[in-house]
Amino acid sequence: MSAAFFNKLADFRLARAVSAGTQPAEKVHPIVVDVMREVGIDLAQTKPQKLTQELAQGADALVTMGCGDECPYVPGLRRLDWPLPDPKGLPIEEVRSIRDEVRLRVSHLVEAEGLQL
């Protein structure tokens, strides 16, 4: 969700987000696909990928969501941790609430970094 919102809100000439996880699923959870479609973002064809040291190395910042010790450490990489619940198995109302919190945090990040369209 966060990478999708970032890529929608940020000027692509200035920055792009890549989504990755420490234990990625085979596909984006169907309820996440549903709640993101509600706001005009289709994640149905998005393939989750593993967060590796190599992937993180090319980044300017790493936004984590409570992965703790499983997150790779990359010297010099700015890291923001947003301890948000995993939407897997939650009722749709809670997933919507998580989606809205993610969108708000991403919006603030994009604005604070001067990356908005």
TrEMBL record:
* Record-linked Pfam families: LMWPc (PF01451)
The record places domain Phosphotyrosine protein phosphatase I at: 1-112
UniProt keyword terms in alphabetical order: Arsenical resistance
One of its GO biological process terms is:
response to arsenic-containing substance
What Gene3D superfamilies does its record include? 3.40.50.2300
Write the protein's name. Arsenate reductase
- State the organism of origin: Acidisarcina polymorpha
What is this organism's lineage? Bacteria, Pseudomonadati, Acidobacteriota, Terriglobia, Terriglobales
